[in-house]
Amino acid sequence: MRTAHDSVVVTGLGATTPLGGTAPDTWRAMCEGHNGIRAIDRPWVAELPIRIAGQLAVEPSAVLDRIEARRLDRSEQIALIAAREAWADAGRPAVEGERLAVVIGTGTGGSVTMLDQNGVLERSGVRKVSPHTVPMLMANGPAAWVSIDLGARAGAHTPVSACASGAEAVALGLDLIRLGRADVVLAGGTEACLHPLPLAGFAQARAHSLRNDDPAGASRPFDTGRDGFVIAEGAAVLVLERATLRPGHRRYATLAGAAVTSDAHHITAGHPDGQTRAVRAALADAGLPPEAIGLVHAHATSTPLGDHTEAETLTRVFGAHRPAVTATKSMTGHLFGAAGALSALATAYSLHHQYAPAVRNLTDPDPDLHPLDLLTASGPLPAGAALTNSFGFGGHNAALVLTT
To answer: Tell me, which GO biological process terms does this entry list (predicted)?
Structure first.
């Protein structure tokens, strides 16, 4: 039985993404259907079959102090930027450090630092390797730096569960507050892995879109023309807090339920059984029937198999009930470890503003998918509850339920 003391609310939002350098800028761009995918502006891209990505709209160097930024991996830089924005947006809650926790998920952590510094080692020898290399490549680095920056001493956690990492971080933040281990949690995800090796690997796996001549139309969730996801970088952080901590303070939404499951099926192919269990468990945790959901923020990466599997999952869960479905990766690309956190952020905004962004590039909905009420135009959203899905390689599934 839930009590008022179990209620957890979202009071702050922060992000830096391919659509904008802040959470409000990102949200406005989503609602206006802007495109954040463009040609990669790195010199090494000419040799690769993949030459498009969702690159940050605002470079971290334009936001962070130069000396501060120098010791951080790009994934750490953007996590810190998003966390500081979210903290300020929440009004900097007056909470003791022992009651403040951080949970920042990531898919690859400081992989670019590792790859770059390995290149330095091979070309120039050990004396040229940066002394900051190990703190920069650690997957827990983003959570650690945020906890240091804000004095969070109730724990600094790092879920690493591929594309479900950001949503799993939010779910863990919910648990920490419910269990009484923290009163406030900064929860989210970060990813910055634009490098020749990951791009070459995704190309070889035939998982990435090859629409190099059409960046704006490359990510096409649920469309017959979809041919793979588009890699992207970015970070998103939510401030979660016990609802009784600051009664009357502005809140975007209530984080009503969450669930995490695993498929135990295949390393890259998701399965509707595991996804369905996650969604149903999140609804049960929130104490809501499927009919209460008015909006689904789909994982929808734009891969042929992935979108089909999620469509089957939604049909299993909702049956004849057809909530509105949106898929903002059509605008941002796929932020991997940050994707679930950005979905949660967008869902919180949707509930707060009673408005939902449309699916971009949906010109020919795939008739082979189960019937879905896909949003083809941004517009008002009735008050109620919303679901956000995140599914990752390895069979990781995370579902979150938010309410007004």
So the answer is: fatty acid biosynthetic process
Active-site pick, 31, 157, 163, 193 = 163
- Does the pLDDT value for residue 4 go beyond 60? no
Please compute Rg for the chain using Cα positions: 20
> What is the pTM assigned to this prediction?
0.96
Q: Hey, do 8-242 and 255-403 end up sharing a CATH topology, with the first three levels equal?
A: yes
**299 belongs to the catalytic site:** yes
Q: Measured between alpha carbons, how far is 266 from 10 in angstroms, rounded to an integer?
A: 34
Respond yes or no: is residue 334 known to be catalytic: yes
Q: Which fold has domain 255-403?
A: Peroxisomal Thiolase; Chain A, domain 1 (3.40.47)
Q: Answer whether residue 29 shows pLDDT above 60.
A: yes
Report the pLDDT averaged over residues 189-199.
96
> Which entry of 34, 271, 334, 396 is annotated as an active-site residue?
334
Percent with pLDDT over 70 in the chain: 99
pLDDT of residue 2: 43
Q: Give 147's pLDDT tier (boundaries 50, 70, 90).
A: very high
User: What pLDDT score was predicted for residue 1?
Assistant: 34
Residue boundaries of the structural domains of the chain: 8-242, 255-403
The catalytic position among 157, 271, 299, 396 is: 299
Superfamily of domain covering 8-242: Thiolase/Chalcone synthase (3.40.47.10)
pLDDT band at 384 (very low <50, low <70, confident <90, very high): confident
Active site residue 195: no
Asked if residue 249 has pLDDT above 50, the reply is yes
